[in-house]
Amino acid sequence: MSGRPSPRPRARRRTGMNIDFERLFHALPSPYMLLDRELRFVDMNATYLAVTGRSREDLIGRHVFEAFPEEGEALALFRSAFERAAAGEANTVVRRLFRIPDGRGGLRDVWWTCHHIPVFDGEGRPCGLLQKAEDVTGLVAAERLQGVVAREFDHRIKNMLATIMAIARRTARNAASLESFLDGFDERLMALGRTHQLLVRNGWDGMNLGELLKGELSLYDARDHRVSLSGPEVRIHGTGAQALGLAIHELATNAAKYGALARPDTRLAVSWTLDAGAGDLEIVWRETGLRDLAPPTARGFGSTIIEKVMPLELAARVERRFLPDGLDCVIRIPADRLAPPPLD
Predict the structure, then answer these.
(1) Per the database record, which ranges form the PAS domain (predicted)?
(2) I need a labelling partner for 227 at 20 to 30 A (CA). Which of 3, 9, 152, 307 fits?
(3) Strand 326-333 with 317-323, pairing
(4) Number of H helices and number of E strands within the chain?
């Protein structure tokens, strides 16, 4: 087989159009190559030449495996596919990895699905094959990402369920009645849900500390309590954000029951700063205007979150001080537990 195949006359008669099939072939956006029955190059379109980085003069008349050497399993797979197509049997080789020129002197990986179509002469006899290379790189990448997302989702769901179970057990341990258990459990689940919502909104890349504090304190602030928040833009990694969210909720709940959010003439100020050298975060929760505040006599759920879970999840150092006029809680979180700022 030599030369380029010309359009079959009956195609022109059927359409009533004088179509230049050769021009159409060379304008197709996908890579196409035409081989004879001996698997020598007869023609290829411009897209094929562009993606392979070869010239027509370099390929015409050459055996396909001389021009593009293969070995092992790939050689056997494509030789069989080519020979079957050249004998009249259409077939497809699905999702094979190729390395092609990247246009900058290097190579890039692409995934192609190769469709092999028999070519027939005017007598209806097989005389070669046409290969179309369909780029499925995006599909392969999307499926891989879907797998990663599914595994990550499964991991996070399990972590979430473990957290909910721990909250339930600890709340039950300190509840005096079913009603008090339900009240405490509902509030903590809602706090967990608010933190989760912030994480989802930011694609699990991190949670804005200011948004978390505003979300937890907005209810109390609306009641005209003297609440102030101040600090720079800081984001917490998703892995520790839920623990911090629960800690802030417990501090706010205790303040609403016994502290600055429960009494008149009191003040709650929450500030946070970043160390200029190491970049560590320091959060200061300060309640003032309290004269008779005493340390708790028993460790509750809030104390467990603040003193045990925070160091475990965020490597945080926590110091609580009961002062003559109120309460200080200082939380120090190392820089490596903070998330980078979002990209613009």
Answers:
(1) 17-71
(2) 307
(3) antiparallel
(4) 12, 13
**Residues present in the chain in total:** 344
Q: For 32-81, give the secondary structure using H, E and C.
A: EEEEECCCEEEEECHHHHHHHCCCHHHHCCCEHHHHCCCCHHHHHHHHHH
Query: Do 302 and 325 form a contact (C-beta atoms < 8 A)?
Result: no
Do 177 and 249 fall into the same domain?
yes
Question: Would the pLDDT of 4 be above 50?
Answer: no
The mean-pLDDT minimum among 14-28, 81-95, 160-174, 321-335 falls in 160-174
| Shared domain check, 319 and 255 | yes
Same domain, 329 and 191: yes
Same structural domain, 26 and 72: yes
Q: Give per-residue pLDDT as tens, 115-164.
A: 999 999 989 999 999 999 999 988 888 887 777 656 655 655 666 666 66
Is 112 a residue whose pLDDT tops 80? yes
Judge whether 276 and 293 are in contact, CB under 8 Å: no
What's the pLDDT at 2? 43
Separation of alpha carbons 39 and 270, rounded Å = 76
Cβ(59)–Cβ(41) below 8 Å: yes
Tokens of 154: 């499964």
Residues β-bridged to residue 323: 326
* Residue 235 parent element (H or E): strand 235-236
For residues 2 and 105, the model is more confident at 105
Do the beta carbons of residue 105 and residue 53 sit within 8 Å?
no
Nearest alpha-carbon partner for 114 in 48, 69, 55: 48
DSSP state of 208: E
Q: Examine the fold and report which residue of 83, 109, 135 is the final residue of a domain before the chain moves on.
A: 135
pLDDT of 8 higher than 60 = no
For position 298, what pLDDT does the model report? 63
> Do residues 283 and 158 share a domain?
yes
- Strands 227-230, 267-274: pairing kind: parallel
Query: Coil, strand or helix: which one is 120?
Result: strand
